[in-house]
């Protein structure tokens, strides 16, 4: 297969970067090699006996490979491996640690919608969707993947800089007894208790309560 | 306790899994995945698996790393607590064992006995997240 002499330095830091279960393999080029290095990638399901080549990531010069499709089943765990080639020389196969999509993915912040009345604001939160293979595929909310998912919400009264914190399991929250004609800013985070995962906070969404009639 | 087990395991997961070079075999997930177990059999299999870890796994997982050893013993203690609770369920006939759970457990034991004791114990310990993912999903 054209692999002559495997003394090329190895690809480094081979690891999965996963967001909402979009699972992309990343690595760094072998030390001291300039341009011209090509790579190939294979992966395996933990507990199953064979490595599977990824044709779309054969003889590529980039240092990432999207394996979301191959690691779609989050009830399985995976390994992936990369080999480098340059001028007829090659490196060893360099593997990831065992990748568990369920516990090793990062979660985006929730979408936040805020509306107001005179003395209250209503907050509607939407959890991100799990990565899907095609736009036509039915969407799966991360809420379905992580039944214990809940939201941490911060509400800031801009005028006084007073902040309240809430933790809710359902996706709506009404904050009553507020001051009319006043700006409030809302930011929210997702928290999963087991496995222990949390998103960053969303950006702030500000709304003003209606003025007194 | 399951949350404590999860956080204890997360702290040593990379270390323990790195000690298991066998990619092609699994104790819990192949050839038959835990995730295919029927609702009726879940309690019994959970109880059997907690017994399995207490009786066959933790005692064979000594490492040269004192931090890892401390985490393993705290996980083992949490397992004992959960095991006792499940034992009470079984005494009250709320955790019945049927044919499927017997078959499933037999498969897991066969996987375990297919390796030497230390390798099998370390592999089982490295698969704790497979067990926890399944237990938490089953609710």
Mean pLDDT of chain A comes to 94
Number of strands of chain A: 16
Helical segment tally of chain B? 6
CATH C-level class of the largest domain in chain A:
Mainly Beta
**Tally of extended strands of chain B?**
0
What oligomeric state do the depicted chains represent?
Answer: heterodimer
The shape of chain A is: elongated
Unreliable parts of chain A: none
Report the sheet-strand fraction of chain A: over 45%
Number of domains of chain B: 1
The greatest inter-chain interface is formed by: A-B, 21 and 24 residues
The CATH architecture name of chain B reads Up-down Bundle
**Low-confidence segments of chain B, ≥5 residues, pLDDT <50?**
none
The CATH architecture of the largest domain in chain A would be Sandwich
Cα distance spanning the termini of chain A:
80 Å
Radius of gyration of chain A: 24 Å
Number of domains of chain A: 2
Order of helices and strands of chain B: HHHHHH
Percentage of residues assigned to helices of chain A? under 10%
Largest sheet of chain B: none
Global geometry of chain B: globular
Protein name (chain B): Interleukin family protein
Family (chain B): Belongs to the IL-10 family.
Function (chain B): Immune regulatory cytokine.
Subcellular location (chain B): Secreted
């Amino acid at each position: 297969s054209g692999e002559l002499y495997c003394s090329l330095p190895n690809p480094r830091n081979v690891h999965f970067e996963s967001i909402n279960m979009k699972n992309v393999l990343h690595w760094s080029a072998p030390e001291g090699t300039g341009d011209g290095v090509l790579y190939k990638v294979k992966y395996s399901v933990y507990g199953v006996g064979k490595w599977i080549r990824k044709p779309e990531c054969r003889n590529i010069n980039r240092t990432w490979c999207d394996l979301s499709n191959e690691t779609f089943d989050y009830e399985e765990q995976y390994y992936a491996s990369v080999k480098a080639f340059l001028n007829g020389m090659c490196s060893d196969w360099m593997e990831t640690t065992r990748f568990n999509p369920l516990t090793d993915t990062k979660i985006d912040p929730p979408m936040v919608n805020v509306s107001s009345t005179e003395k209250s604001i209503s907050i509607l939160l939407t959890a991100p969707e799990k990565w899907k293979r095609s736009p036509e595929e039915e969407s799966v909310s991360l809420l379905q993947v992580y039944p214990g998912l809940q939201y941490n919400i911060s509400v800031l009264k801009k005028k006084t800089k007073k902040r309240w914190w809430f933790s809710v399991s359902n996706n709506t929250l009404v904050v009553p007894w507020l001051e009319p004609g006043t700006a409030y800013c809302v930011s929210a985070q997702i928290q999963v208790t087991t496995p222990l995962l949390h998103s960053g906070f969303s950006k702030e969404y500000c709304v003003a309560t209606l003025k007194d009639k | 306790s399951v949350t404590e087990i999860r956080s204890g395991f997360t702290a040593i997961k990379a270390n323990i899994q790195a000690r298991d070079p066998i990619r092609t075999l699994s104790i819990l997930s192949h050839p038959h995945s835990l995730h295919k177990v029927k609702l009726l059999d879940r309690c019994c299999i959970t109880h059997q698996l907690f017994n399995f870890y207490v009786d066959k796994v933790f005692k064979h997982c000594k490492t040269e790393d004192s931090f890892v050893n401390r985490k393993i013993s705290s996980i083992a203690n949490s397992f004992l607590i959960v095991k006792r609770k499940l034992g009470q369920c079984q005494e009250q006939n709320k955790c019945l064992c049927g044919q499927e759970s017997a078959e499933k457990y037999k498969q897991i034991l066969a996987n375990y006995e297919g390796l030497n004791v230390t390798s099998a114990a370390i592999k089982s310990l490295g698969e704790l997240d497979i067990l926890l993912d399944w237990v938490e999903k089953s609710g």
